[in-house]
């Protein structure tokens, strides 16, 4: 290997150019540090921009447009005839969206003078990272390698018939029967894409609820909404085997608690049971970086590992595996490395399911508050009573707020409904600043807007909603 020189010495080397890594690199450079970012993909942006968040949202939006043209526009007096699906064009548009985003990150690296080290990074010693045959030095190394799809015994992925989210984004034909293993965010989003385009979708979930980490009332309501859209659900069910052939997949399923198995035939199967930290090839064993029981990098409150000078952020550490959580950690860590204060409040990180309607949440669920013995008050408001939602023809769902019974401080907010992922931002801000339900209720909201449902739910915490 080539020895390092002054040109190969940096203040910070970030391994991984996903949302956490590239944002950390940019912020560190803004703070005056000499920064490099290692990325083995041919493009920047990590899973999120290349094969995750961005391409899935492009297909979600395109499929929403198709569904509107084929089913919804007539109710608005817009008569569309002869609608045809051009899946190849839809996929090409997705690729254009991805291309524009990853090129944008390249531009930001050039603008902020972040060096892109192309190749696979390996920590060969504290303060030393190899990329190919070259060894680079850094005062600080940041692990931001993200996550990968979780495997399942008996289900062998080929990315053609049995796919992860990567393959599900690249299908060149609409499956007749699309089976999703896992009732979480990724499975429901990609299931929505193919359901709108004409597939029969069956979701198989080991637990007794979809979106099992979300508020149970929200997930039950959302399940009913998706069922109306044509989804079928097999809850409390496990997949024990999947065998692909030239035309489809034969699945063997049985009750989660054990029992008689049955066969299920699918054209395409999506394996989406979760994601796990990606640490392969980093050399963590050789330098002594500690991992937790789930294979994630152990860090302290400031994202430092047990090895001085080595830090970790994003999906590879504990906490929700969300791009925006990784970004916040990247910024906070860069500021810590520059001698500033950096902190991320995990109680104020929103989670969003970008289906239609959307689901969004921040803070505690009812189940969590009950388990912890916290006395709380609930305020709910349905979108059927919201003027803007009615004008849009999107009235499924409701807003649900949870406030401390004694202090009225907001503890959790949960929305299933139109644009939930956008309007949750107000409640994230409220929780971040320790606001009460009364604070939200006394804030003037534009009329007519979807966010008025938030105001009404806040009023409902005190038993004084105006429009129900």
Q: How would you summarize what this structure contains?
A:
This protein has 468 residues and is an alpha/beta fold. The chain has 14 helices and 22 strands. It folds into three domains: 6-148 and 277-344, 3-Layer(bba) Sandwich (FAD/NAD(P)-binding domain); 162-273, FAD/NAD(P)-binding domain, CATH 3.50.50.60; 350-461, 2-Layer Sandwich (Enolase-like, domain 1).
Helices and strands, with pairings:
Blueprint: E1 9-15, H1 19-30, E2 35-39, H2 46-51, H3 53-72, H4 87-111, E3 115-118, E4 121-125, E5 128-131, E6 134-143, E7 147-149, E8 162-163, H5 165-168, E9 177-181, H6 185-196, E10 200-205, H7 216-228, E11 232-235, E12 237-244, E13 249-255, E14 262-266, E15 268-271, E16 275-277, H8 284-287, E17 310-312, H9 323-337, E18 351-353, E19 358-363, H10 366-371, E20 376-382, H11 387-392, E21 398-404, E22 410-417, H12 420-432, H13 437-441, H14 452-461
Parallel strand pairs: 1-2, 1-6, 2-3, 6-17, 8-15, 9-10, 9-15, 10-11
Antiparallel strand pairs: 4-5, 5-6, 7-16, 12-13, 13-14, 18-19, 19-22, 20-21, 21-22
């Amino acid at each position: 290997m080539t020895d390092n020189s002054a040109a190969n010495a940096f203040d910070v080397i970030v391994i991984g150019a996903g949302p956490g890594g590239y944002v950390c690199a940019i912020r560190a450079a803004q703070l005056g540090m000499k920064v490099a970012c290692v990325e083995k993909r041919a493009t920047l942006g990590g899973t999120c921009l290349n094969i995750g968040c961005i391409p899935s949202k492009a297909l979600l939006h395109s499929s929403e447009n198709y569904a509107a043209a084929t089913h919804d526009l007539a109710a608005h007096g817009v008569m569309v005839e002869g609608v045809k699906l051009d899946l190849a064009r839809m996929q090409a548009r997705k690729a254009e969206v991805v291309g524009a985003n990853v090129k944008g990150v390249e531009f930001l690296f050039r603008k902020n003078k972040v060096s892109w080290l192309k190749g696979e990074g390996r920590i060969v010693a504290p303060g030393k990272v190899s990329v190919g045959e070259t060894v680079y030095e850094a005062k600080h190394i940041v692990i931001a390698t993200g996550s990968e799809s979780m495997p399942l015994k008996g289900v062998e992925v080929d990315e053609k018939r049995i796919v992860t989210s990567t393959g599900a984004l690249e299908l060149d034909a609409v499956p007749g029967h699309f089976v999703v293993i896992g009732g979480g965010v990724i499975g429901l989003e990609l299931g929505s894409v193919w359901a709108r385009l004409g597939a029969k979708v069956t979701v198989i979930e080991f637990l007794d609820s979809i979106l099992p980490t979300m508020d149970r009332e929200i997930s039950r309501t959302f399940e009913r909404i998706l069922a109306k859209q044509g989804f079928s659900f097999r809850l409390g069910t496990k997949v024990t085997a999947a065998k692909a052939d030239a035309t489809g997949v034969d699945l063997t399923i049985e009750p989660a608690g054990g029992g008689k198995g049955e066969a299920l035939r699918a054209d395409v199967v999506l394996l989406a049971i979760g994601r796990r930290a990606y640490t392969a090839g980093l050399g963590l064993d050789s330098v002594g970086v500690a991992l937790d029981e789930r294979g994630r990098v152990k860090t302290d409150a400031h994202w430092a590992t047990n090895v001085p000078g080595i830090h970790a952020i994003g999906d590879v550490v504990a906490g929700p595996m969300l791009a925006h959580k990784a970004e916040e950690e990247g910024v906070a860590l860069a500021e810590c490395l520059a001698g500033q204060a950096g902190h991320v409040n995990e109680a104020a990180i929103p989670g969003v399911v970008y289906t239609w309607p959307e689901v969004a949440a921040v803070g505690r669920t009812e189940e969590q508050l009950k388990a912890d013995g916290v006395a709380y008050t609930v305020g709910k408001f349905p979108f059927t009573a919201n003027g803007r939602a009615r004008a849009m023809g999107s009235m499924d769902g409701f807003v649900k707020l949870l406030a401390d019974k004694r202090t009225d401080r907001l503890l959790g907010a949960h929305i299933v409904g139109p644009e939930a992922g956008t309007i949750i931002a107000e409640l994230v801000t409220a929780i971040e600043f320790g606001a009460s339900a009364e604070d939200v209720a006394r804030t003037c909201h534009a009329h007519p807007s979807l966010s008025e449902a938030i105001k009404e739910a806040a009023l409902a915490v005190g038993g004084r909603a105006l429009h129900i």
